[in-house]
């Protein structure tokens, strides 16, 4: 019998020095994570406090100058917004006309079935976060999408840090019931970009690739409308559809986001594309020519890899169009913490993309796709407005807010009339700038009302209009927070909560 047979292990075998080093390392990592998480908050809070105090000590002449700058900026933003809204009227009317023509023909689309392009439709999921909805969305896509099954493949791409049963087994059994289904568990993936890039290494023989987040219900005819756009114009590289929020009854927040999405997807995006000459892929309900997407892939270092890919495509001369008939229905966050996390990620992602692609304003384009491609002055100014003025507007809105706070502290109004004067009518020119801005806002919301989806009511739009000034301040604050996170190189990826 050897001595080892008498070895007795008591407690943890790790040497005391190793345990101390491990504890010290864990403490250091926790401290670093705490600092990384809360430093942006400290920066934004300091920004508001310092700015408000600064205005308290400015003389009347300086205050007048600041006031005039902020009101003029607000006028520019409101004017650009209403111009985009008016520009969106034509695309909306054209989309309605096309639907009416298809309905008159008994929903016979121009392209015969045997001439349809081959489509890979991707449903991208992160299972611990979306395990409750992935099977429902997969079955919906497999059973409801109106596209010949020999021309489409429904691909379920998912990643998960741990096995989830019996869900994963049920997913992998789907191809046995539906020949046009493909289920792929992406190895070593930690993000949507990883999932997509893995799929792009596969040779599937498709002509088009459609990308959908897991919470989406594509309209049954959505893929067909998108395909018809590609067939009608061979120069089109990307078709971005309209995203509609359908869970408006879940919470007040979700109903307001639904109005916001109508304003973005049915008004701002098509209007901007018409006015500036370029569209944007928005992450979901977007269709790419397979050759272009395989060549470009997704940049996993970007928090909003969709916006980055959209701007990279535009920089190469790719043509992106917004089609209001390519509709998809999605979930909006129902709680403020979920909304806050989602928008912070978007804000930091936009800041990253803006820094990376602002050079398109002045650089000489080089496109392997189009030899004679030359970015127009209109498109360059559109990029300038989208990437610089939009990011700078966060500071202008919040500076105006700080200026008002300083008035409330130093000259606290004793009546509602005085408060109204302090906020909007400090100087005579403010009256004209304010009234014009209000007219622009009303016009934009009237146009939004005319294109609202079936889940949005007129009452929702009225409520959204009333709280719009507060919404602007909130979004500007989130934008500043995103900048602060980018400054400290915050890199945690927080997926949007689903249910």
TrEMBL record:
Keyword annotations of the record: Glycosyltransferase, Membrane, Transferase, Transmembrane, Transmembrane helix
Main location as per UniProt: membrane
Chain ranges passing through the membrane: 38-57, 63-87, 392-409, 429-448, 460-484
SUPFAM superfamilies xrefs: Nucleotide-diphospho-sugar transferases
GO cellular component, one term: membrane
Pfam families: Glyco_trans_2_3 (PF13632)
Topological category with respect to the lipid bilayer: Multi-pass membrane protein
GO molecular function terms noted in the UniProt entry: aspartic-type endopeptidase activity; glycosyltransferase activity
Gene Ontology BP annotations: proteolysis
Positions of region (Disordered): 1-23
Subcellular location as annotated: Membrane
InterPro entries: Aspartic_peptidase_AS, Glyco_trans_2-like, Glycosyltr_2/OpgH_subfam, Nucleotide-diphossugar_trans
Domain Glycosyltransferase 2-like residues, every copy: 209-445
Protein name, entry field: N-acetylglucosaminyltransferas-like protein
